[in-house]
Design goal:
The chain is mainly beta. The protein has one domain: Mitochondrial biogenesis AIM24 (Double-stranded beta-helix, 4-Layer Sandwich), CATH 3.60.160.10. Helix content is about 15%, strand content about 45%. The strands form four sheets. The chain has a six-stranded antiparallel beta sheet, with no helix packed on it. The chain has a six-stranded antiparallel beta sheet with strand order 11-12-9-16-19-14, with no helix packed on it. Strand 1 and strand 2 form a beta hairpin.
């Protein structure tokens, strides 16, 4: 007889280790008996025999349809479970070069760019937060992915990931933005014009207004792509 979902432990934290930082980070997760963890698709590298995978929508059906109808990519997750009586380990990584860090989710929550989500504990819930039309014009969609509840999320970055406090206003290049406090209002500006920014991938400046924290990556995939194109000519 299969084990019920309610038989699994849902309290964080899980045991983890991050190796080969900061350029080639590999996340080792050890699940105790009956523990489980949500992981993004295409992040799994290896897993011990005995661990099980179940595919889940990151959002509810209604939120998923709304997110997809407004141009967003529905987050689909694997639920990794340990139904055995001994600790088992699996490893996760990201597609780009860069770092992996754990962030604790508190009552305030965290807004994150979906591409940088690696995994989260079962005490964390995924939802949506209005990001505005300027975010949609920047190719990020009308809604941001919001993590709430209590637990831990593992976040990826291209290059090194740093946190900065925002007291009133902070301007950042949009492609370096990984995550930010939900209390911050996001506004994307196009100094070189909407058409020029969409074609070149440059010039998109995010204005974060209010009080909270922002997480920025030291490199960006768009910058890496431009660098490779110049070198391969």
């Amino acid at each position: 007889m299969g084990l019920s979902l309610f038989a699994f432990r849902i309290t964080p934290p899980v045991q983890y280790k991050i190796r080969f930082r900061p350029a080639f980070s590999l996340l080792y997760i050890t699940l105790k008996p009956k523990e489980q963890l949500y992981v993004s698709l295409d992040t799994l590298v290896s897993l011990d025999e005995g661990l099980t995978l179940k595919m889940r929508l990151g959002l509810g059906w209604l939120a998923s349809l709304l997110f997809r109808g407004l141009g967003g990519k529905i987050p689909v997750l694997n639920l990794v479970q340990n139904p055995t009586t001994e600790p088992l380990t699996f490893t996760l990584s990201q597609g780009a070069l860069g770092d992996l860090i754990p962030l604790d989710i508190t009552k305030a929550g965290l807004c994150i760019q979906p591409a940088f989500h690696i995994a989260h504990t079962t005490g964390v819930r995924m939802g949506l937060q209005w990001a505005g039309f300027s975010s949609w014009l920047a190719g990020q969609g009308l809604f941001a992915l919001k993590l709430s509840g209590k637990g831990r999320v593992f976040v990826a970055s291209c290059g090194y990931l740093s946190s900065y406090p925002v007291h009133q206003r902070l301007a950042v290049e949009h492609h370096h933005l990984v995550a930010y406090s939900p209390k911050l209002k996001l506004r994307v500006n196009f100094p070189k014009g909407v058409v020029g920014s969409e074609v070149s991938g440059e010039g998109m400046i995010s204005q974060l207004i209010g009080g909270g924290a922002v997480y920025l990556q030291s490199r960006s995939l768009s910058g890496l792509s431009r660098y490779l194109r110049l070198k391969c000519r």
